[in-house]
């Protein structure tokens, strides 16, 4: 999903802050980013919250802090709805005349626009393939077992057959016939 333009709610004037290195400003964040999605995970209508610290550094400012991003997703095995909250850490540098080939964000020296940083951090924190529980067996565990050869993935200490060898995925069985000597 492409990033959409917003009303630029989190524009922070930092001109006065930049007059002395090391000066800090804390700002509280509370904004919903509904509709952000990665695979089967998506942000909810609840707001992303957190406190960010903006600190004056040479030629710019650094922005650090932790956000709380509420999300919902479909369990990768049973497809039931899973809800959770991720806590990504924000660590960005805004700099006047930033090098083009760096991850430093260019800005005008007076105003920091945090909207894109917040949106991208929220989207990057969404889980790729969550489970509703570690022992979720899926919708039909008799027909489609979650582990190899019918052994559940939560039984990692018991994933061996009677001879002590690890159970192999049957799709790779043909590789056992290769003679590499």
Structure write-up:
- With 181 residues, this protein is mainly β.
- The protein has two domains: 11-124, no CATH class; 148-177, no CATH class.
- 6% of the residues lie in helices and 33% in strands.
- It contains one helix and ten strands.
- The strands form two sheets. Strands 2, 3, 4, 5, 6, 7, 8 and 9 form an eight-stranded mixed β-sheet that branches.
pLDDT averaged residue by residue: 81
Query: So how many helices?
Result: 1
- How much β-strand is present in the residues? 25-35%
The N- and C-terminal alpha carbons lie at a distance of 50 Å
Rg over alpha carbons: 24 Å
The biggest sheet amounts to: 8 strands, mixed
SSE pattern:
EEEEEEEEEEH
The amount of helix comes to: under 10%
Query: Low-confidence stretches at least 5 residues in length (pLDDT < 50)?
Result: 1-6, 150-164
Number of E-type strands: 10
What overall geometry do the principal axes of the alpha carbons give? Answer: elongated
Structural class assignment: mainly beta
Total individual domains: 2
């Amino acid at each position: 999903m492409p990033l959409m333009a917003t009303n630029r709610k989190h524009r922070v004037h930092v001109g006065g802050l930049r007059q002395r290195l090391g000066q800090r400003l804390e700002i509280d964040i509370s904004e919903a980013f509904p509709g952000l999605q990665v695979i089967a995970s998506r942000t909810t209508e609840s707001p992303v919250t957190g406190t960010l610290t903006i600190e004056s550094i040479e030629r710019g400012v650094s922005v650090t802090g932790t956000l709380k991003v509420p999300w919902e997703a479909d369990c990768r095995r049973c497809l039931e709805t899973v809800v959770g909250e991720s806590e990504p850490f924000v660590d960005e540098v805004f700099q006047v005349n930033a090098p083009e080939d760096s991850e430093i964000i260019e800005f005008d020296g007076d105003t920091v626009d945090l909207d894109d940083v917040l949106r991208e951090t929220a989207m990057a924190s969404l889980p790729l393939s969550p489970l509703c529980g570690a022992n979720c067996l899926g919708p039909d565990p008799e027909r489609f077992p979650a582990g190899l050869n019918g052994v559940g993935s939560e039984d990692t200490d018991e994933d061996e057959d009677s001879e002590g060898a690890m159970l192999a995925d049957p799709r790779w069985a043909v590789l056992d016939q290769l003679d590499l000597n």
